[in-house]
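Workshop exercise sheet. Pairs work together: one partner reads the sequence aloud, the other fills in the structure field after running the prediction. Swap roles for the next sheet.
Pair: D.N. / O.F.
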Amino acid sequence: MVKSILRLILLAGSLLVLTGCGSIISRTVPGQGHNNQYYPGVQWDMRDSAWRFLRILDLPLSLVIDTLLLPVDARHGPYE
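Structure field:
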C-alpha cells in the first residue's frame, strides 16, 4: 500500500516537472523560440526531435501555459 502511494507521488512529481517544458524552453533558452511570438511552446513541441514521445505529455500542457502567457507574449514580441 505504501509503495503504491510512493509510486503515485513519484509519478505525479515527475509529470509536474515535465509540464510545459516546451513553453519554458522556447522562452528562456536563446534561439529555441525560432522567432515565434505566439504559442512558442506548442511550436517547439511540434518540431521533429529525438524526444517525440514526450510530445504526447507536453503538448496539452504547453498549450495551456502558452494560452495563459498570451498577454506576456503580446508585449514581449518574438522570442529569439
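Discussion prompt: The longest helix spans residues 2-18. What would you look at next?
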